Amino acid sequence: MRLGAGLFGLAVLVVLGGWAGLLGGVVAAVAADRGLRRIEPPAARERRLREAADLPLAADLLAATMRAGAPVDRSVLAVADALGGPLADRLGLVGRTLLLGGRPQEAWAHLLPVPGAERLAGAALRSADSGAALAGALTRLADDLRADRSTAAEAAARRAGVLIVLPLGLCFLPAFILAGLVPVIVAVLGDVL
């Protein structure tokens, strides 16, 4: 990334030249370096999306194991074993921390980087503090997560419909002008002259 940013700064230096090019090159290199570092790597993006996709299933499985009578730590470990994938790694950390006697806040903090998992962690912490049953809250949470995902997919589909208008307009507008307006203008000008 630094090499790309440095090359960009060098290109600005060459194009502008002089002191302005030197100053612009340094500013461009720093801005390019910061911009490139903000881009999420594809592997991290895929992991984040997979974790978010598996979260409703994990909540349902946790609710089912708790309804069957398993304690929270064993339930989390069982779901981690059954689930697989990157979310299972985080759930395994949560389960092992709880099994070894860690505080619930410390254990459930492993899930916080996952989008939507803060609600699961919050429900688990409230249950740990109050002693209330967690299974019902997890079932409702799984339904809410699925509804949120459905809403986001619908919004993305609507956005795609709006964004497709620009390329279509750019393609059809010149064709309309050439096929529809130019012959009429030529015919009118031919009659006038």
UniProtKB/TrEMBL annotation:
Subcellular location per the Swiss-Prot or TrEMBL entry: Cell membrane
Entry keyword Cell membrane: yes
Name of the protein described by the UniProt record: Type II secretion system F family protein
Bilayer topology annotation: Multi-pass membrane protein
PANTHER family according to UniProt: INTEGRAL MEMBRANE PROTEIN-RELATED, POSSIBLE CONSERVED ALANINE RICH MEMBRANE PROTEIN
Transmembrane segments: 6-32, 162-189
Alphabetically ordered keywords of this record: Cell membrane, Membrane, Transmembrane, Transmembrane helix
Residue span, Type II secretion system protein GspF domain: 59-179
Keyword Transmembrane helix: yes
Annotated source species: Micromonospora carbonacea
Annotated InterPro entries: T2SS_GspF_dom
GO cellular component, one term: plasma membrane
Entry-linked Pfam families: T2SSF
